[in-house]
Amino acid sequence: MIFWQILVDGFAISALYALGATGFTLIFGVSGVLNLSHGAIMVAAAVGAWAAAGELHVGPYAAALIGIAVGMLLAFATYFITVRPIQRSGRIAESEKEIFILTATLLWGIIVQETIAYLFTNNAKTVLPIVDGTVMFLGVRTPTNEFFTAAVCWLAIGALWLLVNKTQRGKAVLAASMNPRGVTLLGIELSGIYLTVWAVYGLLAGIAGILLGMFLGVSSYSVGPLTASAFSIVVLGGLGSVSGSLIAAYVVGYLETLTAYLISPAYRTIPALLLLVVVMYVRPQGLFGRR
Amino acid sequence: MQATFASRLFWVAVAVLAAGAVVPSFASGYVLGLLTVAFYTAVFAMSWDLLFGFAGEVNFGPTFLIGLGAYTAGILDARFSPGLSLWVCVAAGAAAAVVGGVLLALPALRLRGPYFGLTTLVAVLMLQNFVVVFAGLTGGEIGLAVPDVMSISASTNYWIAFGFMALSGAILYWLSRSPIGLILQASGQDAVQAGALGFNVAKHKLAAFIVSAFFSGLAGALMVFYMGTASVGTFVDLSVGVQVIIAAVLGGRRTVVGAAIGAIFLIGMGELLRPLGELATLIVSVLALLVIMFFPDGFLGMLRGRGAGRG
Questions:
Q1: Predicted structure pTM score
Q2: CA distance A25 to A41
């Protein structure tokens, strides 16, 4: 009984983690940027959907679309306001651009988070689920929303796989992650590729944020932990490796669910952190990292 | 060029110290209390600058070292209060932070860039979890009350913090301009080449970690006995670490003095804008972002004039 419960619950939460981390790792793989405003963008998308449903009284689908639009808009804002000016700056030494991008995206995340808190207060917000009710599955009473979450996450990840592997644009993105200079030599504008990647990132982060808002609810306090969990999943799987992040998301998701059910919800995040420390010492490039 | 800048930096430091020395003659106890906290934060930021600006190590977890110092001192004092002198607790806090610094340095010598940054982030999260889980020992989320305080007089506390900041600043500044600092800077920028020149990169980086940890832990421990309590929100939380990092970058990296100015500015701004409520953090973040984007060398970089490049 509890075994099935852990299996089902863990699957849904892991799928959500996987979707959240995929966009994050995509950006890093292609442009080497670690976007520390990730959590803020996810929360902003969820709050956007919540506000659209609550204040504009639109239906759940329209609300979700508005939320996704907020996510994409903020992703572009992150790119144009913080990342691109630093990448192009002649006054910051190459070796220091990394820390500047980290600091700037971190500050940008705080700005987004504080704006949300100012406009919509710090209270936790739950986005109205698109599907409600519960079903019996393997003898476990499960909210239908959990299946919906897992299904949407995997659909989105599948669509991303198709985009990257089967379309011209996607192949260019993939090539840029392997050898940016080679791509420019083929006559493809790198800046266009970055725009594509940030658009896809915004889409993925927006969807993940809204699903999270339906599943667990969000508040401006979830910004930090969300960024940290995406960061640790991505490092655990190996920076830049999408399949590694997917596997790592499941490892972390199930570890957390197991701990929460079998030991105590208070210890939820500890085993995953311990695992991360062990991996950092033993295999610093992550489980499936390239470097 | 380097010499003129060095001397100008020196005069900036002298001006700050002179201003600090005359403040108590007219400022209220409230302002003094605020500055006391700002001075401890300044030491946090200067220690971080030694690791980042000179050794090139991106430490996202300054609060791991600060928290270790603060909680070790606080727990020892809370357990053995009358029997154990406050200063012994402070020394133990600094020692614990040094041990933590060595633990952090071990992966740092093997990992590069973002990977090391993550280790430090995880270290903070682990410490935070530890504090919450072992609430019986640490006071958990409510915080740990310590029976001893350094002094109840605002001006005594001010002078202790001021003296401590001036002394640590002088030591860190001297260290950064000494041959050791130059070797650190070289290994931060190109570890392979520094090694090829015959410098022991690992040894120097380890030393930087130990010094940085020592001052972070010491400042954390002293601040506990100023505040009378240790809590996650003031010593361990990631947002505290973020503030330390922003302070150092805002003031100007690789200057030590700039980090202190940045910290005092941040704390002061936060307080000035307090009447605006929730908007205060927003405005400070926007300001910090603007400075970082348009003046990457921070306040001291502005002083040197635009486009002066790297020192």
A1: 0.84
A2: 15
Q: What CATH number is given for A2-282 in this structure?
A: 1.10.3470
> CB contacts < 8 Å between A and B, how many?
104
Spans of all domains in chain A = 2-282
pLDDT tens digits, B113-138: 667 777 787 888 889 888 888 888 88
Check: CB of residue A276 under 8 Å from CB of residue A65. no
Q: Is the pLDDT of residue B5 over 70?
A: no
8 A C-beta contact, residue B262 and residue B242: no
Residue B111 near chain A (CB below 8 Å): yes
What residue spans define the domains of chain B?
2-304
In sequence order, which residues have a C-beta less than 8 Å from that of residue A36 and are 6 or more positions away? A102, A105, A106, A109, A227, A231
Share of chain B above pLDDT 90, in %: 25
Q: Is there a contact between B291 and B299 (Cβ–Cβ < 8 Å)? A: yes
What's the gap in Å between the CA of A145 and the closest CA on chain B?
Answer: 30
Nearest CA in chain A to B276: A118
Beta bridge partners of B144: B230
pLDDT tens-digit series, residues B29-79: 888 889 999 999 999 999 999 888 777 777 888 899 999 999 999 999 988
CA gap B294, B284 in Å, rounded? 15
Per the CB < 8 Å rule, is B114 touching A235? yes
Q: Which fold has domain B2-304?
A: ABC transporter involved in vitamin B12 uptake, BtuC (1.10.3470)
Complex prediction ipTM: 0.82
Give the pLDDT confidence of A18-77 residue by residue, as tens digits: 998 888 888 888 888 888 899 899 999 999 989 888 888 888 888 889 999 999 999 999
User: Locate tokens 């105590």: which residue?
Assistant: A264
Confidence of residue A203 (pLDDT cuts 50, 70, 90): very high
CB-based contact, B233 to chain A, within 8 Å: no
